[in-house]
Automatic annotation (TrEMBL):
Keywords assigned by UniProt, alphabetized: 4Fe-4S, DNA damage, DNA repair, Glycosidase, Hydrolase, Iron, Iron-sulfur, Metal-binding
Superkingdom field: Bacteria
Annotated protein name in UniProt: Adenine DNA glycosylase
Catalytic activity: Hydrolyzes free adenine bases from 7,8-dihydro-8-oxoguanine:adenine mismatched double-stranded DNA, leaving an apurinic site
Record InterPro entries: A/G_AdeGlyc_MutY, DNA_glycosylase, Endonuclease3_FeS-loop_motif, HhH-GPD_domain, HhH_base_excis_C, HhH_motif, MIG/MutY, MutY_C
Length: 345
C-alpha cells in the first residue's frame, strides 16, 4: 500500500471529532484555518464555537465592529489574524456577494490567506487537487522521505510543496489533506512520536536511519529582542482609570492598554516619576508605587516583554476616566487582561 493510501486508512480509523469537520462550508473552514495558525486545536475550539455563535454567516462578521471582533479574539494572540479576518469578511460580503471564491488563485488573493490556507479551503470545500503544507505536513514528509532541507528556507519551502503535490491522493484530496495533517498532529508528533505503532514504519527513512529526532531541519530563529514595558495605571478618587488604543504596525495594533513608558532597562520609581510630565493627567501624582514586585516576562515569537505595572494616583480626577468595573469591555492583550483580574479596588 502506498503512502497516501496508508494516510487515508489511518485517518479513517483515528481522526478526531472536531466541529469544523462537520461541514464543508468555506466560511467555517476558513474561520477554523485562520484560528489554528499558531494555535493549538484544544485552545482554538472554544474560540471557533464563540465566533460561529456570534457570527453564523460571513455577512454577520462583516457587519461587526472591529473592537467587537478583537474582544472576542482576546487571548488567541497574533491579533493581525483577527484584523485580516474582519477585513476579508467585508471583501467576501461586498465583492463576492457573501460567497467565497472557489478557485485557489482567488482564495490566495484574500487578505491573511496564504498558500496553506488557500490550499486547505480549495481542497476541503471545493475538492480541488491542492496539497496543504503546514508544520505537521513538513514533519511527516521530512521523516518519511528523509528530507534534510531546512523547512524554513526558500529552497525547502519549494521542494516540500512539490513533494506534497506529487504524493497527494487527488481522488480523495479532501480527506487526504486532513489526514496527513492529523497524522502529524497525533502520530508523527514533534516529540516522542509513536513510531512503534506507526503504519508507515516499514518504509520510513527516518525510522530506518535512526534520525526521527533530527528531522525536520529548521534554520535558527532570529535573536530574541528584549523590551522593557512600564505600564502606568492611574486610579483616581472615583475609581476610574485610563486606557489608550495602540496605533501603528507594531504588536497589538488597535488593542487597548494603559499608558506605556518603554525604557531600555528596568527602572526605579524615581526614574518613572521624572517621566510622568509627558503624560496628560499624571504630571504631579500624589502617589506612585509598583504593583508587581516580580517582573512579568511576556514572551512573543521574536521578543520578550519585561513588564511592570505601576499604580499612579493622579492629583485630580481623570476627566475622561474609565470605571475600573468596565475595563473588561475593551479588547486588550492577554498581558493586560491578566493584570486587570488582579486589580482589587
Amino acid at each position: 500500500m502506498n503512502f497516501s493510501r496508508l494516510i487515508l486508512q489511518w485517518y479513517k480509523e483515528n481522526k478526531r471529532l472536531l466541529p469544523w469537520r462537520e461541514t464543508n462550508d468555506p466560511y467555517r473552514i476558513w474561520l477554523s484555518e485562520i484560528m489554528l495558525q499558531q494555535t493549538r486545536v484544544a485552545q482554538g475550539i472554544p474560540y471557533y464555537l464563540k465566533f460561529v455563535k456570534a457570527y453564523p454567516q460571513v455577512q454577520d462578521l462583516a457587519r461587526a465592529k472591529e473592537e467587537e471582533v478583537l474582544k472576542l479574539w482576546q487571548g488567541l494572540g497574533y491579533y493581525s489574524r483577527a484584523r485580516n479576518l474582519h477585513a476579508t469578511a467585508k471583501i467576501i460580503t461586498e465583492e463576492y456577494n457573501g460567497k467565497f471564491p472557489s478557485s485557489y488563485k482567488e482564495l490566495l488573493s484574500l487578505k491573511g490567506v496564504g498558500d496553506y490556507t488557500a490550499s486547505a479551503i480549495a481542497s476541503i470545500c471545493f475538492n480541488l487537487p491542492k496539497a496543504v503544507v503546514d508544520g505537521n505536513v513538513y514533519r511527516v514528509l521530512a521523516r518519511y522521505y528523509g528530507i534534510d532541507l531546512p523547512i524554513n528556507s526558500r529552497e525547502g519551502v519549494h521542494y516540500f510543496k512539490e513533494k506534497a503535490t506529487k504524493v497527494m491522493d487527488t481522488a480523495n484530496i479532501r480527506y487526504y489533506n486532513q489526514g496527513i495533517m492529523e497524522f502529524g498532529a497525533l502520530q508523527c508528533t514533534p516529540q516522542n512520536p509513536n513510531c512503534r505503532e506507526c503504519p508507515l514504519q516499514d518504509s520510513c527513512v527516518a525510522f530506518s536511519t535512526n534520525s526521527v529526532g533530527s528531522l525536520p531541519v529548521k534554520l535558527k530563529k532570529n535573536k530574541v529582542r528584549h523590551r522593557f514595558f512600564n505600564y502606568l495605571v492611574p486610579i483616581d478618587g472615583n475609581k476610574k482609570t485610563m486606557l489608550r488604543q495602540r496605533r501603528g504596525k507594531g504588536i497589538w495594533q488597535n488593542l487597548y492598554e494603559f499608558p506605556l513608558l518603554e525604557t531600555g532597562k528596568d527602572i526605579e520609581v524615581g526614574d518613572l516619576t521624572e517621566n510622568l510630565a509627558n503624560y496628560e493627567g499624571l504630571e504631579e501624582p500624589s502617589e506612585v508605587y509598583l504593583h508587581n514586585e516580580d517582573k512579568i516576562v511576556h514572551k512573543l515569537s521574536h521578543q520578550h516583554l519585561h513588564t511592570r505595572f505601576w499604580i499612579v494616583t493622579p492629583s485630580a480626577n481623570l476627566e475622561e476616566g474609565i470605571p475600573i468595573g468596565e475595563l473588561h469591555k475593551y479588547p486588550v492583550p492577554v498581558l493586560i487582561a491578566d493584570f486587570i483580574k488582579t486589580l482589587k479596588i
